[in-house]
Design goal:
single chain, alpha+beta, 5-stranded antiparallel beta sheet, 4-stranded antiparallel beta sheet, 9 helices
Amino acid sequence: MQSNEKEARAVSASPGQTHIKSVAHALDGVRPNSIPLEMRERDQWVLFCWEAEDRHREDKVLLPKATKAPYRVGSNGKRLASTTNPSTWSSYEAALADKTALHAACHIGVYGIGYVFTADDPYLGGDLDDCVEGATVHPDAQAVIDKLGGYAELSPTTDGVKVIVRASLNGFPRHKTPKTPWGGVFEVYDQGRFFTITGHALTECNEIPDRQAEVEEVLGQMFPPEPEQNPRTAPSPAQAVNLSDQDLLGHAFANPVNGADIERLWNGDSSRYASPSEADCALANHLLYMTGGDEARADALFRQSGLMRRNGTATTTAPRRSRRRASGCALTHGLGSLSGQSRPRPAPRPSTSSEVGLSPTPSSLPQISRRPSSWLTT
């Protein structure tokens, strides 16, 4: 036996722990009498071979990974089987005989036999990888094996355990997790996959038990709910600002940080922005911040601004334009979207024909007195 080959191990179990001792290499034979008869009676068997799967990443070349591929019985290990096509499966007797014959002919590629899970059979399989070390199954993995309580056997690599029970995933969407207490991978399937079968059973199992409740408990433990990656913060409620519009704007214009910019925007001057849309967005953000997130009040103030009448925009377009501009900026402050729900809107200010098509002038806007303050810093 080569030094790099793993040994198969016969298993004897005691409560809470499984002890394993070395026997013949798993490649040399399957233990048919240990496999439950009800599985052997189903024509859902394939051969499997080890194959090297090339793996690449942009930054490095990874070593090939050994994978198990299903092959059709009678194809001399040359035709793949499908886990969803019953015509590519065979009886247990045919699979075992073909595997034995191929080994006798030194067809080293064929390694063993496998059972295909389907929607029409009552079985579910759990695969606990890397849970056997030395002569012992990891206690946390053993707890899962004991909880499932079905037919359990050693995997071909001798460092994992497979468990088969009567149960269903019932639409459970997750099948694989590397986050296990023993540090290996845990997988579970009820259809569309095959399990390698060795017959190196941990305990005697003449009849596979129904363990639906236990499976659901294990799924809850092994696949806890995943936290939401980017939880959405609920929009902050509007905070009342107990100032009149004139006082509110007066404080804003007097702010040493950005008061001059707010005043220019209020008067309709967008010359410092790359586009009129960006100027609208900037003023909408300022107004939302100034009003404590009060969308209706910010909307009403925007309609009184010089930007609302810029470039001949009639005041009758105020509701649509104001809410559209402010809605696109509201998320900056976590205030939600202005278009999320309808709010009462003040009636548009009457406009005259002389106002349409004219740039606003300070005399056509509300006169605001500047009041120094440092509370506004956007």
